[in-house]
Structures are given as structure tokens and as C-alpha cells.
């Protein structure tokens, strides 16, 4: 069961999708291109982005390395109207206490995360072992191609732990019109005659 953290559900609860399969976006994530910065184990950040029915699995988690900060870059395979971010962290003080969210940027590292203005910022729930759902300001998240989650601090531990990240919203395929270009390998001068030019030959040079 997930709980909407009502401090940040600044839209009507009727507008927030239930956990029905039609709103879950795991299958629309470009998982191969997910990146996690400051993870203690390589590729462990990808392990927390998984199907909804695996959200309570404790064997898969990511722990930060050098300090308590973590950054996740998560691209989608199309355009997403993002309604909520679902997090399961940790009961201990290793749970992140804040989250800054950036959309449609692939250049957010730790220096940039401190200087860029986030699309939205959240104060996170402390001491929960359940999935907590944080509602977005939908008008700012209506056309999301990628999302970056920055966890700058936790509730007092040396490192941070995240156990599950999920998303709810509506996905739209992005269609690209093919660009058709015709290249002429060897131009034939006969194909480029100017009408009447043959009747205007220059006889000035004898």
C-alpha cells in the first residue's frame, strides 16, 4: 500500500492515480540509460527502479558511497505527464530527508544540483518502511522526457539508503517524422541546362 504525503499533494486526491497498472511507468523507463551518482556498488542504483509488485523487496537497494548524497538520472522512452513519484527509503536515519527534482536535463551533477533551480522540491517522510507517494505540480510535469532526483541529505546518518523508486502518470509515444534527403552522387551537366542558354553563346574570345 502506498500513502500520498499530503503536505505535497497540492492537487485533489481524485486527480491522483491509483496504483492501477495503467498509471505505472516502469515499462516506459529507458532502464539501460539510468545513471546513479555516488552509489557504493556499481549499477546498484538501477536495482531500485523495478516493477510495482517488487516494491517491498529488501534485498535490492542502493547505498551512497562517499557521503549521504545521491543523484538519479532516469530517462523515459516517450513523453510523460508525471503525476507522482513513489519512494521507499529506510526506517533508519539513512533515509533521505529531502529530494530536489529536475526535468529534461542530462547534465545534473552534484555541483549543478546545488546551483540549478529544481522543478520541484520535497521534504521526505521519516522512519517509514512503506512506499510514500509524492504528488507533483502537474502543470510543471506535463511533458517529461527525463527526470533527475537529487537527494542532498538524510536524517543524520553518514550514508543514505533508497530501496524503491517508481513513477505514476501518463505516457505518450514521441513520433519523429523521417527526414528524406535526395543526394546526387554525380551531377550530369545535361540535367541542369538553362533553357535558352545554348542560343546565347559568348563569341567574344576568338
From TrEMBL:
Domain (PITH): residue spans on this chain: 14-187
PROSITE patterns named in the record: PITH
Source superkingdom: Eukaryota
GO cellular component, one term: nucleus
A Pfam family per the record: PITH
Cited PANTHER family: AD039 HT014 THIOREDOXIN FAMILY TRP26 (PTHR12175), PITH DOMAIN-CONTAINING PROTEIN 1 (PTHR12175:SF1)
Family membership: Belongs to the PITHD1 family.
Annotated protein name in UniProt: PITH domain-containing protein
Native source species: Mucor velutinosus
Amino acid at each position: 500500500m502506498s500513502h500520498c504525503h499530503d503536505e505535497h499533494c497540492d492537487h485533489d486526491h481524485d486527480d491522483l492515480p491509483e496504483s492501477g497498472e495503467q498509471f505505472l511507468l516502469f515499462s516506459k523507463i529507458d532502464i539501460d540509460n539510468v545513471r546513479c551518482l555516488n552509489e557504493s556498488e556499481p549499477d546498484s542504483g538501477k536495482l531500485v527502479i523495478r516493477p510495482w509488485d517488487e516494491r517491498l523487496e529488501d534485498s535490492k537497494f542502493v547505498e551512497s558511497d562517499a557521503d549521504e548524497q545521491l543523484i538519479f538520472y532516469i530517462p523515459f522512452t516517450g513523453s510523460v505527464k508525471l503525476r507522482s513519484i513513489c519512494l521507499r527509503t529506510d526506517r533508519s536515519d539513512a533515509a533521505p530527508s529531502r529530494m530536489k527534482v529536475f526535468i529534461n536535463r542530462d547534465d545534473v551533477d552534484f555541483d549543478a544540483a546545488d546551483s540549478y533551480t529544481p522543478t520541484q522540491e520535497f521534504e521526505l517522510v521519516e522512519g517509514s518502511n512503506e512506499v510514500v507517494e509524492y504528488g507533483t505540480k502537474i502543470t510543471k510535469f506535463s511533458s517529461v522526457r527525463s527526470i533527475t532526483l537529487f537527494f542532498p541529505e538524510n536524517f543524520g546518518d553518514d550514508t543514505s539508503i533508497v530501496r524503491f523508486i517508481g513513477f505514476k502518470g501518463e505516457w505518450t509515444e514521441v513520433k519523429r517524422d523521417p527526414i528524406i534527403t535526395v543526394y546526387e552522387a554525380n551531377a550530369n551537366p545535361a540535367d541542369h541546362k538553362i533553357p535558352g542558354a545554348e542560343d546565347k553563346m559568348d563569341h567574344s574570345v576568338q
